[in-house]
Amino acid sequence: MSHIVVIRSYKPSDELKCREIAKDGIMSSLNTAFLGNVFREVTFEMMILCAALMFIFFGVPFTICIMVVPIVIILIYILTYASLVTKSMEVDQEISNIPRIYTSHAFCGFWVAEAFEPYLMTRNPKDVRYSIMTEKQFRESNVDVSSQTKKTVGMIALTKSRRVDKGAWIKRLAVDRHYQRKGIGACLLNVAIQFAIDQRYGSVETVASEYTEGGRELCFNRGFELRQMYHKQIVGSLVTVLMYELTYQIKPLEREIVIPPKSHARSFMCS
């Protein structure tokens, strides 16, 4: 196996790459978020209102009033970009404190996906099929990776929910855009859920925006259910994001689950 991805616990040396993955993941939704905000009903209402006020009360020529349209569009882009940059800065600050927030508590966890590849990687990762395994499976496989390079390509975090009793909260699920659609995100999610089961949590919750369709689909495929939907205001009603709150109920039988032998463990954890 020359191309392997291992899901393992976070190490301080992963911080820089985790920051990059988080930033890229947040900023990648810029165009989608911008277009979504532009075509909201409130946007057109604001354009019409501004143009009408300029034309009726200030006597501004109609041709000039029309200029309010590109001005509003530019304003929305700036506000959308600023909101994503602000979010990116908040996440960056959190990642710099992973040891304090996550890894120093028994009921929390932070994991990364680490890719092992040949030093002379001539193929695009999008065209490569990777064997994905957990840290335990990797140790048991005795695969020689001494001649390969490695890099962090994904991450996920789990902490105790502040709102739900005996509930866990999944955060920061992200995969490098060059390594998406390969099952890495699904395996990261499986590892986090298994951790919640081992810690005897009663449920696992997460939240996804309308612009992270891939993440929502991944959670639904794993058994998450929609708990509620709500609009999160970024800049009043002008810039908002539709949020999906998802929940996964841990069944009593799952609490007593026993990891099967190695030959079956891989399909359970990282199929």
From TrEMBL:
Tell me where in this chain the N-acetyltransferase domain is found. Answer: 93-248
Q: Mind listing the GO molecular function terms for this protein?
A: N-acetyltransferase activity
User: What keywords does the record list, in alphabetical order?
Assistant: Membrane, Transferase, Transmembrane, Transmembrane helix
Write down the superkingdom of origin: Eukaryota
Pfam families for this protein: Acetyltransf_1
TM stretches of this protein = 46-79
- PANTHER family recorded: GNAT FAMILY N-ACETYLTRANSFERASE, LD18367P
Name this protein carries in UniProt = Uncharacterized protein LOC107222607
Taxonomic placement: Eukaryota, Metazoa, Ecdysozoa, Arthropoda, Hexapoda
Gene it is expressed from: LOC107222607
